[in-house]
Specification:
single chain, 191 residues, seven-stranded mixed beta sheet, 7 helices
């Protein structure tokens, strides 16, 4: 409803402010990762809503990896072996806030691929094409993707669902930040 829309606008405003200083230092679009500790805490919804909010002010967005109901076809690693192949797999979905690239997170090779130089080059090219590249990562409790994506992201948004998340999960995230395993992380409270 209206409260949710306003909360997302506030999130958009905060993101733009946080990234304003970096904008002068780095060229190209910004990379944002959305993550939660467990499934069902709202990171996909938050990523989609943020993309829509960015699109509303004329920002081009690409969401990678989200579980979109409209996209039955998932992009495989074979389709991501080059920027050209990846570009063909991108779905233009303005009603979802921009462009989508649904990926097959269940492919066991995904974690290795996102750690590769090849993937880093693809992300670099995506930064040139989009104002915002957004990753909807698998939950931290299920995979290490969030830690890998954090290293290439300008900002990581940890979505904490008040009614579902556990306080101990938040403490685990805090430990990861203290150890330097996660950087530039902000908490989004999802009620």
């Amino acid at each position: 409803g209206r409260q949710t829309e306003e909360a997302i606008r506030r999130l958009r405003s905060n993101l733009l402010s946080m990234m304003q200083e970096e904008e002068e230092q780095k060229e190209g679009g910004k990379v944002i990762s959305f993550v939660s500790y467990r499934s069902g805490e709202g990171s996909t919804h938050t990523a989609q809503s943020t993309a829509k909010a960015m699109a509303a002010i004329g920002k081009s967005t690409l969401i990678i990896g989200a579980d979109f109901p409209k996209s039955e076809k998932k992009t495989t690693l074979e389709n991501m072996n080059s920027f050209e192949n990846l570009s063909k797999a991108i779905i233009n979905a303005q009603d979802e806030g921009g462009s989508l690239l649904p990926v097959d997170w269940n492919d066991a090779r995904w974690g290795d691929f996102i750690s590769s130089d090849q993937f880093a080059q693809i992300v670099k090219k995506l930064r040139e094409k989009y104002d915002f590249v957004m990753f909807d990562s698998r939950p931290i409790a299920e995979a290490s993707d969030a830690f890998v994506l954090n290293k290439i992201s300008d900002q990581t948004l940890y979505v904490f669902q008040i009614k579902k998340s556990l306080k101990k999960d938040l403490k685990e995230i805090d430990k990861c930040v203290d150890k330097g395993e996660l950087k530039n992380i902000s908490i989004v409270v999802n009620s």
